[in-house]
Amino acid sequence: MSLFSFSFYQRVFRVCAGLSFALIAFTANADIAVWEFNDSANRGLTRISNSVSDVSFDTGASGVRTNGEGVLEIRRPLGTSVTSNAELEPIRSGKVWMQLDIAGWDLYGEPTEELSFGFSEESNLNEAVAVLEWKRLNPSNVWFFGRAEGTGSTDAAIDEFLPRNHPESLTYVLECDLDLYTYEIYKKEESGPWLSVGRGAIAEGAEIHYFGI
């Protein structure tokens, strides 16, 4: 079982099991969207409640649903992919944060799991401004890294491999600075301190129009 949670400022999103999420949120000067998945069971992405605004996802997917206990579970067939988009009012300056709370995971079988969370100019995470990627590269290890697209942008490698079984909680924050055209990834383990674990460049002139998963 795996569990993630997310937030955007411009705030938190959580996932759990197969893969699952418990909270998504983002913020700038105020929360833009917060999905806590406290809905009744069997609700897909398009039917989950956003507690601070009317921002919503444009599509759901089979095997992605709430479990009635504050978690969005992802149990999809191997070899399939889908992107859900939440359209935002354009963000052209200042800072935007996404927080991802992960309760843990337990993965098995072939390494096919991959998740992306982040901001883009176009839907489906095309023309990515900054995206946090979660990927199982081999049967034993999981890797987080940052991705950006466009002239002058750079990816952010996080020099760390995590085990396929990780029962402890983790929190990652993706911070985008649209004035300096940089992004930074922070990590926190349960009661530990916040650590900067990766940074990269955003394409100059980039704007945020979508949040995607």
What does this 3D model show about the protein?
The protein has 213 residues and is mostly beta strands. It has strands at residues 3-9, 13-16, 20-27, 31-35, 64-66, 72-74, 85-91, 95-106, 114-120, 128-138, 141-147, 156-163, 165-166, 170-177, 182-189, 195-201, 208-212. It has no helices and 17 strands. Strands 1, 2, 3, 4, 5, 6, 8, 13, 14, 15 and 16 form an 11-stranded mixed β-sheet that branches. Strands 7-17-9-10-11-12 form a 6-stranded antiparallel β-sheet, with no helix packed on it.
Please count the beta strands (DSSP E, at least 2 residues each).
17
Helix amount: under 10%
Q: Could you tell me the radius of gyration in angstroms? A: 16 Å
Shape category = globular
For the biggest sheet, the summary is: 11 strands, mixed
Topology order in helix (H) and strand (E) letters: EEEEEEEEEEEEEEEEE
How many helical elements? Answer: 0
The CA-CA distance between the termini, in Å, is 19 Å
| Helix/strand class | mainly beta
User: Which residues form runs of ≥5 with pLDDT under 50?
Assistant: 1-23
Averaged pLDDT: 80
Q: Kindly estimate the percentage of residues that lie in beta strands according to DSSP.
A: over 45%
